[in-house]
Each structure stands twice: as structure tokens, then as C-alpha cells.
Write a structure and sequence with these properties.
- With 361 residues, the chain is of the alpha/beta class.
- It has one domain: 2-enoyl-CoA Hydratase, Chain A, domain 1, CATH 3.90.226.10.
- Helices cover 45% and strands 11% of the residues.
- It is built from 17 helices and 9 strands.
- The strands form 2 sheets. Strands 1-2-3-5-7-9 form a 6-stranded mixed sheet, with helices on both faces.
- A hairpin with a 2-residue loop joins strand 1 and strand 2.
- It is globular and about 60 Å long.
- Keywords: Hydrolase, Isomerase.
- GO terms for molecular function: 3-hydroxyisobutyryl-CoA hydrolase activity; isomerase activity.
- It comes from Rugamonas brunnea.
- It holds the Pfam family ECH_2.
Length: 361
Amino acid sequence: MSEFVQTSVSNRTGFITLDRPKALNSLSLAMVRDLTAALLAWRDDAGVDAVVIRSTSEKAFCAGGDIRFFYDVGRGSPQGGSALLEDFFTEEYALNHLIHYYPKPYIALMDGVVMGGGMGVSQGGPDCRVRIVTERTKMAMPEVNIGLFPDVGGSYFLSRAPGQLGNYLGLTGLTIGAADALYVNLADHFVPAAQMAALAALIEATPGAQLREAIAAFAAPFRADAGEAVLQTQRALIDRHFAAPTVAAIMASLAQGADPFAQKALAAMQTRSPLMMCVTHELLKRGAALDVADCLRMERTLVRHNFEDGEVIEGVRALVIDKDNAPQWKPAALADVTPEMVARFFTPVWPDYAHPLRHLR
């Protein structure tokens, strides 16, 4: 394993520990490869009955992909492409697919920041996932804030959120806490931070085959402690505004009311990439009709177009490199985004037989 990923097996459970705290466990290509190697090794290992993925830091489970790497590699390559960049997204999305269909319980301790790529390595599929949040959990798919789109399977899991909650999360990029994560079905259990040491002890002491039930029993008394889900109280408002047929119509709808929640959503959207909000809206519409493999293949096509377009390079520059928080989006105005601009992102880059994720099933 690399210096940022620790693995071990104990009591028939495989443990993956992310240990890159200074970067909030942002995923590098080496980390993606380490995660993949461990999960492939344990998938068919009769001595491993479950997998736990966790962090050494209380601040973050995983804040996403290494966007400084995206900037350095993407900016220095013709049309924003390079072998390393291509490998990163191909291998990250293949990892997301591996996790979704993992044949053993896959337990993610989603304590602290869980964003972007962190969601990709924690969501899993319904047959394997056990997703635990705490009051420290800060969850988001904030890609539109850096000129990207909700990837790592976001076109699948956001498009299947109740009502219009997926559109709300994808288009605003706003952060939610534990109660909202549970309500949107992006988490399964709440455990108070003060009880995480006890949970860790339970996990260490319980055989892997019994972990899912043991964790559910441990967490059950704390469910109400997660608090009230803001998205539940605002559900009618979200469904009303975000059901509008276009991003422009959604923002116009939000602008008509004085409700503070609606105004916060509108204010967030006014800072996001107009083009990538429109691409995201179309992405979620299409993703709702696709399986995980096809969602990831679609996202892989979009990410190639995205780096060629350069929107993500500008977004990372403004947010992380220069930190001026003044991205020069192209186009700058939502009114200037045309259907043709959006459709171009969905144009196939490779024939089906040559798609880098063609083997996903």
C-alpha cells in the first residue's frame, strides 16, 4: 500500500484506513490503486467476510479527488488531457463500480468531511453498504463549484434520491449533515462522535460475518439523536422549485419567493458554473434511466469533455490555487448556455468497443 492507505485483516474483517489528513484524505491515483488492490484481494478471500473503510482523522473521511493534481496535470496537457488524468478517472470510476457490487458487507465510517470522491468510495450498493454518519459529518457533491459535475456515480445515486433532492444537491453543491444524509438515503446509521470509539471496539471484537447486524443494533438507540432533517422540513419547497424543466426555470422559481432556504439555494447557484449546472441537470435526468455501469461510462465521457473545455481548470484555479473565489466561467451567464453546448458533453468520445470502462457490467 502507499503511504496514505493502510490495510489489515483482523477477526475476518478487512480494514482500509485513509491516512492523508493534511489533504483531508483527498484521493490520489496511488490511493485509488491501493483501494482497488485491497478490495480485489479480499473479494474472493474466504478469510475475509466484511470490509471496513475509515479515516485516521476526525476532520475528514475523504474530501474527494486530489483537485490540485487535476489542475497541474490538466493544465499542462494539450486540450486538458494526459495519461495520468485519463488513468485517474478510469480507475476511480472502476473502483466505484467495484464497491457498488461488492459481494461482502462494506462498512464506511463517514465521520467528518465526505465529499465528491469520498462519496464514491462510501456509497456502495444496497446489497453491501453500511454507511455510518456522526454529527461531524459534512456531506456534499460540490462539483459545480469547481466547474465539474457530480461524478463517481453521482448520476446514479443523486438521480435516485427522493423527489427533487438529487437536483437540489447536485445543482447547489451545498453541504448537508447527518440527519439530512439519512433522510436522502445517503447514510444508514447515526452514531454520536462520542460513541465512535465504542463502535470501533465493537467492530474489532465482532467477526466479519456478524458486523452488519451488530452495527445496526449498536446504532439503533442513537437514531433520534441525529436531529431534524432540514431537507425533510423543506421537502415541499425543494420539490416545487427544482421540478422546473431547466436550470434557468429553477433559478427563476427560487427568485420569486422570499423564503430564506430558497434564497440560500439561489445564492449558491449564482456562484456556480452556469454551463456545468446545465450539464448536471441533464446528467441526472439521463442517469435516472441507467444502471450503475452505464452511469459511470456516461460520466467518463463527460469528464473527458470537461477537461477539454477547461471549465474545471478555471474552477480549481479560483477556489484552490489563486483562491480569489472569482472564477471566469465560460459562458459567464446562464442565458448564454445553449442546448448545443450541453449536448456536446454527452457526445461519445470512444466507440463502445474502445470505451475505457467497456468491461463494467
